[in-house]
Amino acid sequence: MKKETKFAHIGAPKAGLGTAVNPSITRASTLLFDRAEDLYRSDVRGYGRHGSNVHDALADAFTELEGGAGTVLFPSGLAACSNAILSQVKAGDHILLTDSSYGPTRKFCDGHLKKMNIETELYDPRIGGNISKLIRDNTSLILMESPGSLSFEIQDIPAICEAAKAKNVVTIIDNTWSAGLSFSPLKLGVDISCHAATKYFGGHSDVMSGAVVSRTKPLHNAVKQTAVHLGNASSPDDAYQILRGFRTVVTRFRQQEATSLALANWLSTHEHIVQVLHPAHPDHPDHKLWQRDFTGGGCIFSVVFKPCSKEHVLAFVNALKVFGIGYSYGGFESLCIHCDPQLKRNHATPFEGPLVRFACGLEHMDDLKNDIEQAFNEVF
Ligand SMILES: Cc1ncc(COP(=O)(O)O)c(C=O)c1O
């Protein structure tokens, strides 16, 4: 069965006489029992933090999406990433983090993990199998993100996983960009896949959520235990919204993916642009790797402007009328940010000019193109 079909029905209650098509929302902290004997049973939900029928349906949808052994839900994408990491480390460990990772994940590793005496080493996202040279006796984890945040490097995931497996190191990927629809990392050997469900699955920029899908039961149990220890809980209303997003995500994703590639193609020959950073564009340095491992794209990409002043870049972003100025992606509305203030890289050669990121929503391609063109005309 195709993904569109599965996601249109996954988690739906069994039809009876007039059954709603989606599971109902149960809001609860206390769950009542009619017999004291059942209060301490481990096979039934005992308290609000343990989730609800909607959470279960959503977790099943993510497990199906990635082909995993189980999913733990979190109240944000960042919580998903940090809990997944915490589930696999202990004091004294060394971990390897791609230099292209989402900034707040990097801050979590550099800050919080450091306090726990866990050392984070940043590696070149394009390192491939040579990562084995960085693996030490106390390396417990390799963190990947492909494409990289803002700079869109594609990693050689199978080669990294092979090196990791040879030395019993766990691998985690942030798979938010592909929504699990154009890339299936668990099938390539990755152990744990994290999603900021806030993006495509929320789809409407009004809900935050995260999911961690593990390849095996023991890995899933470790993530679950960490989440329990840290008091993780997400609201049933938010879980419902994300499940609702699953119903339409494939269709929305396809349109956003097509718009982003069309815009990237157009911008690649634009007089004000030096380079587009979109892995599905043939000029992308990792295009061949992307072709090998991905089945499609995503909705965001960056462009490198011809060298110009910071004021020009700010004026360009301010001149956009259809694109909003704001973080995130995967929603129905297009967004733009200038990246340089948050672009921290230890391994890459600096880009020739300022970096600007576009996130494509569901607006018509012509209007997005005209918006960019009029902003260029106003500034340059
Ligand atoms: C790649 C990536 N991972 C994780 C996150 C964090 O997700 P959230 O905003 O839901 O915490 C984001 C948010 O922008 C992201 O882009």
Give the overall average pLDDT. 97
Secondary structure: helix percent: 25-40%
How many helices in DSSP terms? 10
Strands in their spatial order, largest beta sheet:
1-7-6-5-4-2-3
Shape: globular
Strand residue percentage:
15-25%
Number of strands: 12
Helices and strands, in order, run as: HHEHEHEEHEEEHHEHEHEEEH
CATH superfamily of the largest domain: Type I PLP-dependent aspartate aminotransferase-like (Major domain)
Biggest β-sheet strands, sense, barrel:
7 strands, mixed
CATH architecture of the largest domain: 3-Layer(aba) Sandwich
The CATH topology name of the largest domain reads Aspartate Aminotransferase, domain 2
Distance between the termini: 51 Å
Explain this structure to me?
34% of the residues lie in helices and 16% in strands. Helix 4 (103-115) links the parallel strand 2 and strand 3 (119-123). The strands form two sheets. A seven-stranded mixed β-sheet has the order 1-7-6-5-4-2-3, with helices on both faces. A five-stranded mixed β-sheet has the order 8-9-12-11-10, covered by helices on one side. The mean pLDDT is 97. The protein folds into two domains: 3-244, Aspartate Aminotransferase, domain 2; 250-379, Aspartate Aminotransferase, domain 1 (Alpha-Beta Complex). With 380 residues, the chain is of the alpha/beta class. Residues 76-78, 81, 102, 149, 174, 176, 196, 198, 208, 210, 327-328 line the site of pyridoxal-5'-phosphate.
